[in-house]
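Running co-folding for zinc ion.
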Amino acid sequence: MARAADLPSDPPGAEPAVRIGHGPDGAAAASDGLPAWCPRCGEHMDRRPAFGRSRPVCVACGLVHFETTATAAVAVVAHGRRVLLVRRAISPYRGQWSFPGGFQEHGEELAETAVRETREEAGLDVDVVRALFVGLTRDDPRKLVNVVVFLARPRGDQLDVDARIAAADDASDVRFFDLEAVPLELAFENSRRVLDHLRREFPVGPIG
Ligand SMILES: [Zn+2]
């Protein structure tokens, strides 16, 4: 569904939903979908200075397209000193591990995004404890993404959590890993930032 932060993908063989480009000023490495044609008059769009920076502008009628940054939520599901990771079944970073997460659906609370994505990818219902931090992810080849990282815990009985997880949706595997023993093949720079944050805030003992 709305996948993300550890983020979404296109169907195999499909063209990417977004175009990546560098403006003349070097800014905006990724676009939220630079329109190939002006939605107002049908002429093509080109990057030009507009309102203080490089933006897609219609060469004929001057319509300015304001690019936006996507928003995603990631769940750090903690169980003792272990964290829940999912193995990505999709590109980008297929086969690598990441925290459950995905793009915010329109009108959805971000904490709900974290809960929904964890249910979809890991089959586990969780409760959000609090937000840990916010960061901008620059290494998703499809778009720039604001990622809100939430601390969460498994809902209900804490004894059988390993038996209740099951990979689905965008994930091919799911496991709890001790914070000191997470796989090296981590998708997204953001995952490493999350780990650094956790080791700093929780140097010993249970997470959260
Ligand atoms: Zn136009």
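Result summary
Confidence is low (pLDDT under 50) at residues 1-32.
The pocket of zinc ion is lined by residues 38, 40-41, 43, 58, 60-61, 63 (CB under 6 Å).
Job closed.
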